[in-house]
Amino acid sequence: MTEERAPVDRVAEGGTSARPAPADTAATLRIRATPADALRFARHWVRCWNERDLDGLLAHYADDVVVDSPTAARLRPDSGGRLRGKAELRDFWTYGLGLVSDLRFELTGLAVGPVTPAGPETIVLHYRNQAAQQVTEVFRVEGGKVVQATGTYRVELRAAVS
After folding, report:
1. CA 114/CA 9 separation, integer angstroms
2. In 32, 46, 70, 86, which residue has its Cα 20 to 30 A from 97's Cα atom?
């Protein structure tokens, strides 16, 4: 897996970064064949969450996307943590945003690989949320759209072994 480190990226906090953030919209942004394009996707994804722009977020996902989420498992136990399709994502994310008025993400890292002529097959975003939790999202991409995503939260090793 090839890893590209994001420059000190304070875009999510409304600040500046080493490179200006592109003025992408979900309508013009597709996940393409380079790590730089994956970084553009990551910045746009974080910006959409911070602006509560569900249309912008959902534009990155295939209609039949499958998302595995520990948050969904906790808030909607009947889902088993699995959300299927854009309609279910929109419903759950609307519900979740209603519960977290101070939602804020800060991009802290990015990994991609393997990169094929069609684009990166896997994009891994690392970010910190409003509760200072380290979160990792793993996206499987086909045809420029996310077809599968899995969210994970960092576990402190001391806590995990006790």
Report:
1. 24
2. 32
Residue closest to 150 by CA, chosen among 142, 160, 138, 161: 138
HSE, CB side, 13 Å, CA atoms: give it for residue 9. Answer: 24
Q: Are 110 and 5 in contact (CB under 8 A)?
A: yes
Handedness of CA 145, 121, 46, 88 (dihedral sign): positive
- Residue 64 main-chain phi, psi, to 5 deg: -105, 30
Tell the burial category of 45 from Cβ atoms under 10 Å away from its Cβ (0-12, 13-18, 19+): buried
Question: Would you state the structure tokens that stand for residue 79, as one six-digit string?
Answer: 């889902």
Query: What token pair was written down for 33?
Result: 């064949």
Nearest in space to 149 (alpha carbons), one of 51, 42, 43, 75: 42
- Helix/strand/coil for 35: helix
How far, in whole angstroms, is CA 112 from its chain's centroid?
13
